[in-house]
């Protein structure tokens, strides 16, 4: 059911606020329908009807179904991504503490309803729209990798860790602490808070065991 500005009716052209509200509703409904039915089965007719628009109105803004799909997914990515500032706010002088806090933020975001929906639609349609997966990576993952690399570089300066390729290590960290949880959730695994916390702690320690400096045995 429409609500708020999108429900308003009256003579004349809609206000800018009303038009924007209807556009937001269109993209939201389009994403839900693409997710529920898949790209092939979703139709412009059905999407337009769900928001009480005509097909002609939708086509006036988006030339075809592919353009609407890209716009709907891009909106969802933009609304879902975790700003780097959120991760920067939990950084401390303790590397394990910092990485654990970052992992909690990323895992919570990935396992949120919006995060699972995003992963499902990417899994289903990325072969057809490789550009949306690249968009997801560029806007959601790459900034996190860059920030984690910065954190690692700062700690490498003190000699606490060995750092040859910081961005590659940042990518490895995210894969280690997030990917397994996401796959499990999509496949139906029950992930309670205790399981998640234990998994994060284990994965952070495993990562640190791979990058910490080690005493070199003295030559005999």
In short:
By secondary structure, this protein is an all-alpha fold. 72% of the residues lie in helices and 0% in strands.
What does this structure look like?
With 220 residues, the chain is mainly α. Helices cover 72% and strands 0% of the residues. It is built from ten helices and no strands. It is elongated and about 70 Å long.
What is this structure's SSE topology?
Layout: H1 16-41, H2 44-50, H3 55-61, H4 65-80, H5 84-88, H6 95-111, H7 113-125, H8 130-156, H9 166-186, H10 193-211
Helix pairs in contact: 1-2, 1-4, 1-7, 2-3, 4-7, 4-8, 6-9, 6-10, 8-9, 9-10
What's the mean pLDDT score? Answer: 88
Q: Would you state the CATH class of the largest domain?
A: Mainly Alpha
Helical amount: over 70%
CATH structural fold name of the largest domain:
Tetracycline Repressor, domain 2
Strand segment tally: 0
Count up the domains: 2
Instruction: Give me the CATH architecture of the largest domain, please.
Output: Orthogonal Bundle
Keywords:
disordered N terminus; DNA-binding; Tetracycline Repressor, domain 2; mainly alpha; single chain
């Amino acid at each position: 059911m429409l609500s708020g500005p999108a429900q308003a009716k009256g003579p004349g052209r809609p206000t800018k606020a009303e038009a924007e509200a209807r556009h937001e509703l269109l993209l939201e409904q389009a994403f839900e329908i693409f997710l529920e039915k898949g790209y092939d089965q979703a139709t412009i007719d059905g999407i337009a009807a769900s928001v009480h628009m005509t097909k002609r109105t939708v086509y006036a803004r988006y030339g075809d179904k592919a353009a609407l799909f890209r716009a709907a997914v891009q909106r969802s990515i933009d609304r879902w991504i975790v700003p780097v500032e959120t991760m920067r706010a939990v950084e401390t002088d303790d590397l394990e503490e910092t990485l654990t806090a970052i992992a909690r933020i990323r895992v919570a975001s990935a396992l949120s309803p919006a995060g699972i929906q995003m992963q499902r639609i990417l899994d289903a349609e990325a072969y057809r729209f490789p550009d949306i997966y690249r968009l997801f990576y560029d806007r959601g993952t790459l900034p996190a990798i860059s920030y984690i690399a910065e954190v690692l570089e700062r700690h490498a300066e003190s000699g606490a860790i060995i750092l040859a390729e910081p961005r590659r290590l940042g990518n490895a960290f995210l894969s280690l602490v997030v990917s397994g949880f996401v796959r499990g959730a999509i496949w139906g695994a029950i992930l309670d808070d205790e399981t998640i916390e234990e998994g994060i702690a284990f994965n952070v320690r495993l990562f640190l065991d791979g990058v910490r400096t080690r005493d070199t045995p003295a030559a005999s």
